[in-house]
Amino acid sequence: MKLTIGHLYPDLLNLYGDRGNIQCLMKRCQWRGIEAETIAFESNDRVDFSGLDIVLLGGGSDREQMLVCEKLKEIRDDFKSYVESDGVVIAICGGYQLLGKYYKTDQGTITGLELVDMYTEQGEGRLIHNIVLKSELFDMPIVGFENHGGRTCIQNNKPLGKVLTGAGNDETSGYEGVVYRNVIGTYLHGPLLPKNPQLADWLILRALKKKYGEEVELTDLDDTQEKEANDYIYKRFVK
Fold this sequence. Notes:
Blueprint: E1 2-8, H1 18-30, E2 35-41, E3 54-57, H2 62-84, E4 88-92, H3 94-98, E5 102-105, E6 108-111, E7 119-134, E8 142-153, E9 161-165, E10 175-176, E11 178-180, E12 183-186, H4 197-212, H5 224-237
Parallel strand pairs: 1-2, 1-3, 3-4, 4-12, 5-7
Antiparallel strand pairs: 5-6, 7-8, 7-9, 9-10, 11-12
Helix pairs in contact: 1-4
């Protein structure tokens, strides 16, 4: 088995250790004997979604999101088709904001990909916190770090998790992130996946099932160190 990961615009959207997320996905595949490769699509490259099994859309500053806005218009229809056919996506921070209809900032409005019915508007002050979530998808808590000025409204979509500590999507709803089909969007970074192995495996397993059939299962890995890191953050900020 083989998975191909597409990293979109790392020349502009790689603010919060997104390459660490790529490395985590690659390693967790390779440790299981699953061949994995990553294709980086920079801002001048044509993105071909037909050969991609997982797509990562990373974080960037408001300025960088403005720069990438025109590129998003070129790939919007193909990206939408990929998502609606159950393509797997992990979108972090700025990439999460770009999943929606728009991100309204003091400098102007950034048109989003419109992959998910949601929108973001800049609020007063930045939300900077260590953050812990409880998600229905996983036994382990989801831990990470948030640093964002946008407040995201996910409409009637399913959130990634309930906030146990931190601000989350909008500082008021008590929820963080979004789950739509095989898409996960979240403000958590740091990078996210090494401390949250169950989330990483969720992405890998859904990509394998889409490509090779529902009977695919993942072999267990020794996640002792990952669980210790996760548990340390949970106990420090929640218990």
